[in-house]
């Protein structure tokens, strides 16, 4: 999509701190982090919002969800489950959708946010 900032990042037309890439997905650090660790996972193909996803995007959304804990672990904010209780560490995952959802960039992205609280800004 012309003039989509995340399409331009995916096409390497503008720089970003990329932490993961495969054929379908890209993950890069948020330019204005809300917390010590804050990165975004985006599909390389342009989809505007979660509400624009269809059944054809189910595998893509699954890939995004499964990638989040893997990259969180690599970035030092993984979740260590203890089997029953809360465990330790962890992170927040978030899709903002539409104006009332606080979405500013209309290219689907999952926020992955972690690190010791309090965080610098809320999302
Ligand atoms: P939204 O409010 O749409 O859910 O979140 C968009 C996020 O993208 C924000 O947290 C913002 O800081 C981040 N962002 C906006 N423009 C850029 C950019 O050019 N590069 C990077 N790395 N992050 C961006
Ligand atoms: Zn786009």
UniProtKB/TrEMBL annotation:
<dbReference type="InterPro" id="IPR001310">
    <property type="entry name" value="Histidine_triad_HIT"/>
</dbReference>
<dbReference type="InterPro" id="IPR011146">
    <property type="entry name" value="HIT-like"/>
</dbReference>
<dbReference type="InterPro" id="IPR036265">
    <property type="entry name" value="HIT-like_sf"/>
</dbReference>
<protein>
    <submittedName>
        <fullName>Histidine triad nucleotide-binding protein</fullName>
    </submittedName>
</protein>
<dbReference type="Pfam" id="PF11969">
    <property type="entry name" value="DcpS_C"/>
</dbReference>
<dbReference type="InterPro" id="IPR019808">
    <property type="entry name" value="Histidine_triad_CS"/>
</dbReference>
<feature type="short sequence motif" description="Histidine triad motif">
    <location>
        <begin position="107"/>
        <end position="111"/>
    </location>
</feature>
<feature type="domain" description="HIT">
    <location>
        <begin position="5"/>
        <end position="123"/>
    </location>
</feature>
């Amino acid at each position: 999509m012309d003039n989509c900032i995340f399409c331009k990042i995916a096409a390497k037309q503008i720089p970003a701190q990329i932490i993961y890439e495969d054929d379908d997905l890209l993950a890069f650090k948020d330019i204005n982090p809300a917390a010590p660790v804050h990165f975004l996972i985006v599909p390389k193909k342009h989809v505007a919002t979660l509400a624009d996803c269809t059944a054809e995007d189910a595998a893509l959304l699954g890939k995004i969800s499964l990638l989040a804990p893997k990259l969180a672990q690599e970035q030092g904010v993984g979740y260590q489950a203890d089997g029953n209780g809360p465990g330790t560490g962890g992170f927040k995952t978030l899709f903002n959708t539409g104006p009332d959802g606080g979405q500013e960039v209309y290219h689907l992205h999952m926020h992955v946010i972690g690190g010791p609280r309090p965080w610098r800004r809320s999302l």
